[in-house]
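Field reference: sequence -> structure
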Amino acid sequence: MNALRIYRVTDHYIAFLHSRDSRVQFNKQTSRPYVGVVLHVGEFKYFVPMESPKPHHKKIKPGTHILKMDDGRLGLLGFNNMIPVRDDVLITFDIAEEPDADYSALLQKQAYFCNRNKSEIFGKAARTYYDVVNGKNKFLASISCDFKKLEKACKQFDLNR
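Structure field:
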């Protein structure tokens, strides 16, 4: 199993997907944009967004669609918000070159956590995907992106438009 890397996704692609499914989260217009890990789910690569730690994360119960990293101290992975991606919409970056030292340290800890917990991450991603796509969990489907619709959009996306 290859090491998981942290990526960003182009704003243009995020906006395109959001136009197809309003549950797709926008990139924040701050110094801390959408970051996440990429893994294969079904026939597609999926970007699983990470959230920085927030006080309300302590109240969130772990479930199929959420993985609290280090009990929430490092934030969480939101599998219900994962989106299909292609290589041409992913932005690689060097965590060590992040100008905010605290944020760089957080990203390094998150990357370490993700690689130590790859099996659980892959399992939660697959379970969320299949439960939503196969209609096994109505609540989960109601709070998740429409994975099948987004897969069609992913194929149609034109980077030059």
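Note: The two ends are 35 Å apart (CA to CA).
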